[in-house]
């Protein structure tokens, strides 16, 4: 006797099976530390294929190339001028705030604060990014509002929350300082002081800022013992189970793109619409630039708003697929309601795996960088 087929139930079972297969489709193989050391000591072309979503452009993790702007004789006068300007508080209207007030070399060219303190003790709106490796940047600020360091250099000077200095008045202000004339003559061939020349000097100084050689770079260059077992496990997790290379790849561990992590606080305190404020494209609401992970363990607190002081907490957030806030009733039909990136998925990391990932981040963080402050022109 033929049994009667229940097609709806069969279809439901098939769908459930497919979903389950998709969930378990990636099986993380646990290698020993010795196996990983041997595996990653080979050329990068022989490493395991990273777990990256289809359609995402990525680059393999690699040693940091040297800045093409550092120790170049023809650029030295321009860089020297930029260094003096960077540390000079007279670029602010109060003559109390310099670029180095927010970008401290001993704090990895950031400042250790949630947001910076600027003119008249006003608080900034976003966390201060590090200036390490800006020479390789494709856009600047968390929302990517400018495409060059020359344009970037002008923004904080005239920002009323930061240095509060009218750009149109700055050249005449510096022209009254006799000690600046030789610097501009050496850098540009004559002593004329202009906004564009000030910005160019600041930009070229920033292009020389590099960290020391990290354990990760030593390992990638052939020192097989430069990384700990924990950091090696973290490297493998970073490339595979943890899915980090969907956004953080290449020598600088960034894709230079913009993503929504669900931390926009739409309609609440700390609301920040991110990239949308530049493009006015609704698809960009809540998106922020992927920062480099170089020196990351010294540049906290983290994220665009600086509200996250614990890397362990950040690991927990990524492990859960980050935040996916649901709109309150008044925002249910709002066309600007942001959607968290689909790249972010629950990861199922163990506590040991989270600690290994942090060890990997430590491996690309170097000793504190100290730069003597220059004597200012008088």
Automatic annotation (TrEMBL):
* Residue ranges crossing the lipid bilayer per the database entry: none
Principal location class: other
Cited PROSITE patterns? CYTC (PS51007)
Localisation per UniProt entry: Cell envelope
Domain Cytochrome c: where?
229-365
InterPro entries from the entry? Cyt_c-like_dom, Cyt_c-like_dom_sf, Cytochrome_c_Peroxidase/MauG, Di-haem_cyt_c_peroxidsae
Q: Which GO terms describe its molecular function?
A: cytochrome-c peroxidase activity; electron transfer activity; heme binding; metal ion binding
**Which terms in the GO cellular component ontology are assigned?**
cell envelope
Q: Is this entry keyworded Iron? A: yes
- What keywords sit in the KW lines? Heme, Iron, Metal-binding, Oxidoreductase, Peroxidase, Signal
Keyword Heme applies: yes
Q: Which domain of life is it from?
A: Bacteria
Question: What is the name of the protein in this document?
Answer: Cytochrome-c peroxidase
Q: Which organism is this entry from?
A: Echinicola strongylocentroti
Cite the source lineage.
Answer: Bacteria, Pseudomonadati, Bacteroidota, Cytophagia, Cytophagales
């Amino acid at each position: 006797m033929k049994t009667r087929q229940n097609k709806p139930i069969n279809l439901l079972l098939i769908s459930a099976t497919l979903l389950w297969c998709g969930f378990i489709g990636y099986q993380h193989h646990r290698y020993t530390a010795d196996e990983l050391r041997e595996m990653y000591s080979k050329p990068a072309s022989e490493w395991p294929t990273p777990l990256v979503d289809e359609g995402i452009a990525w680059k393999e993790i690699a040693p940091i190339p040297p800045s093409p702007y550092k120790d170049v004789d023809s650029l030295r006068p321009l860089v020297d001028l930029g260094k003096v300007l960077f540390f000079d508080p007279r670029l602010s209207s109060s003559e109390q705030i310099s670029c180095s007030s927010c970008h401290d070399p001993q704090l990895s060219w950031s400042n250790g604060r949630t947001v910076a303190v600027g003119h008249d003790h006003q608080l900034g709106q976003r966390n201060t990014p590090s200036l390490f490796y800006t020479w390789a940047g494709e856009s600047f600020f968390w929302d990517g509002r400018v495409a060059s360091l020359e344009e970037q250099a002008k923004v904080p000077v005239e920002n009323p929350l930061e240095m509060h200095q009218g750009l149109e008045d700055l050249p005449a202000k510096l022209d009254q300082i006799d000690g600046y004339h030789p610097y501009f003559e050496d850098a540009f061939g004559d002593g004329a002081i202009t906004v564009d020349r000030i910005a160019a000097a600041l930009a070229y100084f920033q292009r020389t800022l590099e960290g020391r050689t990290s354990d990760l770079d030593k390992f990638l260059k052939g020192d097989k013992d430069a990384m700990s077992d924990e950091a090696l496990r973290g490297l493998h997790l970073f490339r595979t189970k943890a899915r980090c290379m969907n956004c953080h790849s290449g020598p600088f561990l960034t894709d230079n793109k913009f993503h929504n992590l669900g931390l926009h606080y739409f309609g609440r305190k700390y609301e920040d619409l991110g990239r949308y404020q530049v493009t006015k494209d609704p698809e960009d609401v809540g998106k922020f630039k992927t920062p480099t992970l170089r020196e990351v363990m010294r540049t906290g607190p983290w994220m665009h708003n600086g509200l996250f002081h614990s890397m362990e907490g950040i690991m927990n957030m990524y492990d859960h697929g980050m935040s996916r806030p649901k709109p309150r009733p008044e925002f249910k039909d709002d066309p600007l309601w942001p959607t968290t990136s689909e790249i972010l998925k629950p990861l199922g990391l163990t506590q040991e795996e989270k600690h290994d990932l942090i060890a990997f981040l430590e491996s690309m963080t170097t000793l504190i960088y100290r730069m003597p402050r220059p004597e200012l022109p008088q």
